[in-house]
Write a structure and sequence with these properties.
Length: about 400
Amino acid sequence: MKRTDTIVIGAGQAGLAMSRCLSDRGIRHVVLERGAIAQAWSARRWDSLKLLTPNWQSRLPGFAYTGNDPDGFMSKDAVAAHLRRYAATSSAPVEERTGVRSVTADHAGFRVETDRGGWVGSSVVLASGACSVATVPGFAAGLPEGIASHTGLDYRNPGQLSPGGVLVVGASATGVQLAAEIRAAGHEVFLSAGEHIRAPRSYRGKDIQWWMDSAGILATKAREVDDLERARRVPSLQLVGSARRMFFDLNMLAEGGVEIVGRLSAIRDGTALFSGGLANHCALSDLKMNRLLDTFDAWAERRSPEGIAQPERFGPTRVPAAPRVSLDLTGGRIRTIIWATGFRPDFSWLHLPVFDRKGGLIHQEGRVAPGLYALGLPFMRRRNSALLDGVGADAAALAAEIERHGSRLAA
């Protein structure tokens, strides 16, 4: 049984940021990774994926983008390489290909069993990622035979799909990107849109992430939000990692031949049933977008930053006059369903009473229990807690807590 002060589980951006902050405080630790460093980026993302945030926003504790394209967008493989360089620069003590089997508590602190032996530490940081498992609705079990089913974790490119139509379920960033890519490859595509948030790639001459960062939106603290649980479920903006198009939204998809339908509510007797609330969802999406732009305008009026164009507004989402409410899945027209319905963490190896009745991890700004912490979860401490650019501030705060926890144990 090996011993250290802190055991970090996961060597993605969260685990590596945590490692750097612990090293800066002289805290002994190990980072356990079931695969290779940043493997989720290189092996569990679709081929064409790019970050939704510009390269300049790929900041981590003691590390930043130094290339010649700060306003570009990293591919998934470039992100993995960026994180491997970060691990090397930080001399992160990563134990690769070490899968965690269980985490339990005992008199010595925490016992972490892996497929390569056990570790004991006074504290543990859960940094295994917020997107470990695809969230798929229960009625997916009612899919007829012959319909292939994929998620954002196992879809790679249109070449893996059978000839025929594709139903993409979910209209946030993942859903709109996959619908556009699959349609461009020649498939008939239907996109089922529930709650979503439309957003321009740039506004008043600046990338939307510049506005989110500069206006303090991303730094909004969890304690400043009235309904935190709802805030943690807010869908990602309809964006793509490219500055070539102002919008990557339902209007753009419809113009490209994608048929937009309402939220998928059930699959019954081989038929997909859609809600009649598409127009309402689209109206709410436009309302949220305009409220966000109002926030940017108010901030710009107070600060008068240089290089800002005049305020602008955009036409509404165009909704079909009579969107379909059902789609036959048995006649051969539809051959594939892509579930772009979100992701969740996987803590199945955490054998401690720290979950709510729905199986969600209970934590307060990353504090789960004395000596047990989480990192990289949606809106954990701030709005950008789950983003590459957001884990650093959270990791620094938790490193300070871990140091205080160690001091109390030593007293």
